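Slide 14.
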Amino acid sequence: MRVTLWGTRGSLPAAGPETVGYGGNTACVEVRGDDGSVLVLDAGTGIRRLGDALGADVTRIDVLLSHLHMDHIQGLGFFEPLYETGREVHIWGPATSEDSLRERLGRYLSPPLFPVRVRDLESHPELHHVEMGAFRVGDLEVRADLVCHPGPTIGYRISQNGHSMAYLSDHEPALGNGTLPKEPEWTSGFDLASGVDLLLHDAQYSDAEYVEHIGWGHSSVEQALAFAKAVGAGRLVTFHHDPTHDDAWIDAYTKRAVEAAEPSFDVIAGAEGASFEV
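Slide 15: predicted structure.
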């Protein structure tokens, strides 16, 4: 199983050379199974480049949305496979009691926000509400559960051949007091991430910044490290970088946080184009 990052930002940063290293696209991650199955986690602006890179041999694509905040769906209308006949595209997202996934995505993929409606896409994508629990896509086993973030938000665990990764892009497990509970097994996202080989986790803030954003649904770098330690992750990739943080800030702050925490696992600041074998 190979995991590739196509977008790692929490929102679009100001363009400039200081953001080149970690990229300027919003959340999008490709998971490619050993059998060729392709999962796309979220449809931020990074999905445009992913769509351009997918070969014609990929006939089925499953897009798993964590939630429908704009930074996680704003690239969907620019995903080229949606406009190609012969592609089998499935879009999965959280259910609500009010509107269907099609109705909610249709508010974006329709005038005046977008010129093309969902019903007019040549691939005729199938839309699915994600049910909490396990399901399969090809040879990949997917587990889904709700996590702590404003609005219905899903975290994903993906497994194949005894190896696993977890994707908790927008996640605030330390909601309220800035630290994890003393009994971490009761923490949001714990079961999804327990013992994973690779954890992609929200690390938007510094600890000082988090104090000013409690309840916004995001974590500090230090909280991401504490969560990864609590769940016993093999590697941590920090994700959902704040748009105001440039490369120098991310490098320096991540280094200080790791030196202070002294984790027993590898910590990598997530950058566009990075790829990991799981």
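Speaker note: The longest strand covers residues 140-146.
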